[in-house]
Amino acid sequence: MHIDWSALGSVFGVSLGISVALVALFTLGVAGLSKKETAQGGSAVAAATGAYVCFAACAAAVAYGISLIITK
To answer: How far apart, in whole angstroms, are the C-alpha atoms of residue 50 and residue 48?
Structure first.
């Protein structure tokens, strides 16, 4: 059995990077929602909008990953 270590390493690196990016994006969304609670006026709307954009990006990335798994 032959293991392609460079391919395994690249898959590991990409999956680690995407995982860290998704966690950071979700954390920004949660932080935006928590800022919305203390903000007033336009800044509360901006914080909520930013949080929802972060959550939508997380959902899109997860949906893309699932579609890659299903179609390949």
So the answer is: 5
Q: What whole-number distance in Å separates Cα of residue 16 and Cα of residue 2?
A: 24
pTM tops 0.85:
no
Residue 40 vs residues 46, 47, 48, 54, 68: alpha-carbon distances, Å? 10, 10, 11, 21, 41
What letter represents residue 63's amino acid? A
pLDDT digits (tens, 9 = 90+) for 16-42: 999 999 999 999 999 999 988 888 888
H-assigned helices in the chain: 5-38, 42-71
Tally of residues, the chain: 72
